Structure formats: structure tokens, C-alpha cells
Amino acid sequence: MAKYAIITSFLGELRDRFCLYNTPRSIAEKLETAAGIPGITGVEMIYPYDFQDFDPVASALRRLNLGVAAVNINVKGEREFIAGSLTSSDPDIRAKAVRFLHEGMDAAAALGCDKVTVCPLSDGYDYAFQADYAGDWRRLRDAFGEAAARRPEIMLCLEYKPNETRVRSTLSDAHATILLIRELGSPNLGITVDLGHALYAGETPARTLSMLTHYGIRPYIHLNDNYRNWDWDLMPGSVNIWDTLEFLWTANAIGYDDWFTFDVFPSRMDPAACFAVSAKMLTALQGIAHTLDPAELNEYRSRGDTPGLIGYVWRRAGLLS
Ligand SMILES: [Mn+2]
To answer: Which of 17, 107, 120, 212 fits a 20 to 30 Å CA distance from 287?
Structure first.
């Protein structure tokens, strides 16, 4: 049975470049809300902002019987991080960002959670001649290497994304991230495969998962959707249903038994309703994925019978008789 979680920030007030959405909620209120959503059994917590008062949060998680999918370490939100944090050439700024990684991993350990995820969104560039590309890459690599070595029992999952807030991100795509992890060789470095980031990076998300498996890198999955032009964080399966189905099928095929975390931005809708229907949609898609028999798919592939293969998938999805 797949486990579904929500990133806590999406249960409170949200902001884009122009508008404010929904209502501010304390972390206690967010956890209460999450626990009341059918199909949701866990949360991804934001470090440091959800951890101002650790003990009440830890006891609320226990009381509400909520699992912690991951601790999401925010290395972009502080004012001094806006021009880069883990890649900063200012040693004090970079040291603060690395300290966040250490403390976030400590927080995960204290909650009995096996991993953290980090998306270094202020690390990148906006203009030609602005960046020291190789220097940024080395600083990013060394920061992750240092953090991974400090707590080998906690997975440090790196979340790549093509852009935002920087026009181009240093950790831009799956293959760059694989390269960084291969260079470091730390067994506790994983990759957060955000389905939407993979889609708008021009990847085939199922192939991305397969490449990680090929290289022995553990994935952690964020689910959402978009029109492959930007990170719209729509409900998963609402746009790219076939890519999503193949992604879920591949997750099953590689034996993924970790959380599926909704990274969905519920603008102009009630967050609880958004996540309840997302869990239902995912359960329905998982049901279809489980009916797609690897041996039958392989038979169509080995015969080169593409029309037969597509017809088979559509029959299993209940769209053809
Ligand atoms: Mn994400």
C-alpha cells in the first residue's frame, strides 16, 4: 500500500509573485489539518521554520499518528541566502547553509525519520558572466559531501530543479545530480525526484528513476504536474497522465517502498480538498499500474509490437475493451 504525505508549507498561507492564497496556519494547525485528510498518513516538515518549538511538534506528530516522510531543509529562505547559500563564496553565508544541513539531519534523526531533502534554489545564476560555474559546482559538491559524512545513517536527498528562484539552477537536472553523487561516492546521498521538475527539465520521469537505479542511487519521490514549461505544482496526473502512470509503474518495478509526497500548490482551492482528491487519483493510478504485467509488456516490446503495447496499456486503464 503506497504511503502519501504532504509538505507542510502547502497547508498554510501561500504566495506567488502577485497574490496571496489561503490562510496562515501554525505548524500545530497544519499537522491537525494533515491528519484529518483521508488517504494522508505523513508530512514533510520544513527545517528550520517548522522546528521553532521542537517538543510540541514531536508530540503532536505522535498524538496524530503522522509519519515524517522527510525533513525538507530550506537553504534559500534567509535574507542572506538570496545570492547563493551552499555555493556562496562568502564563507560565513556558506557555513550557515551547511549548518542548516547538519541541524536538519539532526532534526530528522530526533524524529526517527531516515532522510532529509534539500533543493538549493538560490544557488544558480541569472546573467552571462555572472557566475563562476566550476567554483559553484565545487562548493555545492563539497557542502553535500561534508553534510553526508557527518550523519551516515541519514539519507541526504538532493532535489534538482531547472530554475526558480534563480533563472538557472546549479543543481539543474537528474544527470548533473547523478554526476555529483558519483563523484562524492557517499552511500547516503540520494535524489529527490520531483515529478514536475523532471517533466519541465525535459526528462522522461520513468527513465530518470531507472537511471538512478542503474547507478545504485536511492530515490525519494515528490508528486505534482505541469505543462512542461514551468513548475506549476498542479495535482499529479492532472496533465501528464501517461508519464505519471509510467513513473508509478517504474517506481513499483524498482521496488520503491518509500513515501510519495505531494508537492502541490493549492492556489484557488481548499488545501485539504486538493490533497484528498490527489490521494484518490494516485490510488486509482496505482491500481492501473499494478495491472500492467512486466512480462506482457516485455513480450510486446520484444516483438516490436508498439500498437499492441499501447492497446494493452489502454485496455488495462479501462479505456479500450
Ligand atoms: Mn519538490
So the answer is: 212
